[in-house]
């Protein structure tokens, strides 16, 4: 069985046991990841429905690809620039092509939906009481030390923005000389 998967903006034809180098993915060597963006699944010459199919893979290594030379040149201007670049990539070993577990995501989705609503409501309740004592303390310190505010230096004024110098008028054209003589 093989599958066409999309990762890092590229498409790869994979089967169980294949090793591929893809754009950098999060994870360390030995971690198992799931590639969910499956475009096509086939076995032999038959093509199957790719809906609900996932490809599991193991990260073998995180490394860098071959060096790519970027050379810029402009003829007859003595302009030459040479720069190298090595792209980060992840080496994967495909462990299996098969159906994804559908029961686990359904259970996780409602739990996640409820959790953000609770967390949003809880901080709002906690934040309101926290602000009130802070306002009282600021008012009480201002009442206790009115002399401190009066003694504080006023903020320094910014210097006014400088205007651009006025342009000089264009020079008058000299009268044309005529050869009358």
TrEMBL record:
The keyword Cytoplasm is annotated on this UniProt entry: no
SUPFAM superfamilies: L21p-like (SSF141091)
Molecular function terms, GO-annotated: rRNA binding; structural constituent of ribosome
Keyword S-adenosyl-L-methionine applies: no
InterPro entries found in the cross-reference section: bL21-like, bL21-like_sf, Ribosomal_bL21
Top-rank taxon, per record: Bacteria
GO cellular component terms, semicolon-separated: cytoplasm; ribonucleoprotein complex; ribosome
Subunit structure: Part of the 50S ribosomal subunit. Contacts protein L20.
Keywords associated with the record: Ribonucleoprotein, Ribosomal protein, RNA-binding, rRNA-binding
Compositionally biased tracts (Low complexity): 99-154
Region of interest (Disordered), ranges: 99-181
Family: Belongs to the bacterial ribosomal protein bL21 family.
NCBIfam families linked: L21
Pfam families: Ribosomal_L21p (PF00829)
Listed GO biological process terms: translation
Sequence ranges of Basic residues compositional bias: 155-170
HAMAP family for the chain: Ribosomal_bL21
Gene name linked to the record: rplU
UniProt protein name: Large ribosomal subunit protein bL21
Role this protein plays: This protein binds to 23S rRNA in the presence of protein L20.
């Amino acid at each position: 069985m093989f599958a066409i998967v999309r990762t890092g903006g590229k498409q790869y034809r994979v089967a169980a046991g294949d090793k591929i180098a893809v754009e950098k993915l999060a994870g360390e060597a030995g971690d198992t990841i799931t590639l969910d963006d499956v475009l096509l699944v086939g076995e032999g010459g038959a093509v199957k429905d790719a809906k609900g199919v996932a490809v599991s893979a193991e990260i073998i290594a995180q490394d860098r690809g071959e060096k790519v030379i970027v050379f810029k040149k402009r003829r007859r201007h003595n302009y030459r620039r040479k720069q190298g670049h090595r792209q980060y990539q992840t080496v994967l070993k495909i462990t299996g092509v098969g159906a994804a577990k559908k029961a686990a995501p359904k259970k996780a989705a409602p739990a996640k939906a409820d959790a953000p609503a609770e967390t949003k409501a809880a901080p709002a309740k906690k934040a309101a009481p926290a602000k009130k004592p802070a306002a009282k303390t600021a008012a009480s310190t201002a009442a206790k030390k009115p002399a401190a505010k009066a003694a504080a230096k006023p903020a320094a004024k910014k210097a006014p923005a400088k205007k651009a110098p006025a342009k000089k008028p264009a020079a008058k054209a000299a009268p044309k000389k005529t050869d009358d003589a």
